[in-house]
Amino acid sequence: MKKVTKKAPAKPAPVKVREFEKDLQKVGNRIKALRIKRGYTSYEIFAFDNNINRAQFGRYERGEDLRLSSLLRILKALKVSPEEFFSEGF
User: Fold this and answer.
1) Are residues 46 and 71 in contact, defined by beta-carbon separation less than 8 angstroms?
2) 21: which of 4, 13, 27, 38 lies 20 to 30 Å off by Cα?
3) Could you give the angle at the alpha carbon of 25 between the alpha carbons of 14 and 42, nearest 5°?
């Protein structure tokens, strides 16, 4: 009787940490640029006006700790579609 061996499922290629961090930084820079374009020179006022935690929004602009749901909420506040957001600089 032959012994059946199972192959381990293929693992996705690991994302290089630096590459990932650079992409998050691009997202943060884009958020900041759009905020300024909307006339908000202070991220704190933008966060307050849009009911977003001030400290958390500061982290978003620095490219830290950003979830997709948070990004979509910010884009709505900026009145920008995801397509528009990612059309420049990516």
Assistant:
1) no
2) 38
3) 155
